């Protein structure tokens, strides 16, 4: 099975993960909470009518895109390959787990860490 893994992606010129044709659960997205480049993509990518219909523009980190959003460390757009004391930070470790196919591991502790988004009903 093929996987697509994006970090801080400002867009892919497709409407959803399904359009990438790699199978359900095989499009992975990391978006640092302070990555302004990824967020800018919400405004820069989209259809012909992208400046008048912002609700139609999604980036891989958006829940509506349909990819699996993984936990990412803070640090902006250049933080996805950071290490601390010679050990991979959360973003880099999650990338390693996807590349190695550990998402199918019988041990949940070995799998990539999926981001838990806040419930908008509670906000």
Automatic annotation (TrEMBL):
UniProt lineage: Bacteria, Bacillati, Actinomycetota, Actinomycetes, Kitasatosporales
* Region spans: Disordered: 69-123
Q: What would you give as a GO molecular function for this chain, any one? A: hydrolase activity
Q: Where is the composition biased (Basic and acidic residues)?
A: 84-96
Q: Where is the DUF1023 domain?
A: 2-40
What are the alphabetically sorted keywords of the record? Hydrolase
InterPro entries hit by this protein: DUF1023
Protein name listed in UniProt:
Alpha/beta hydrolase family protein
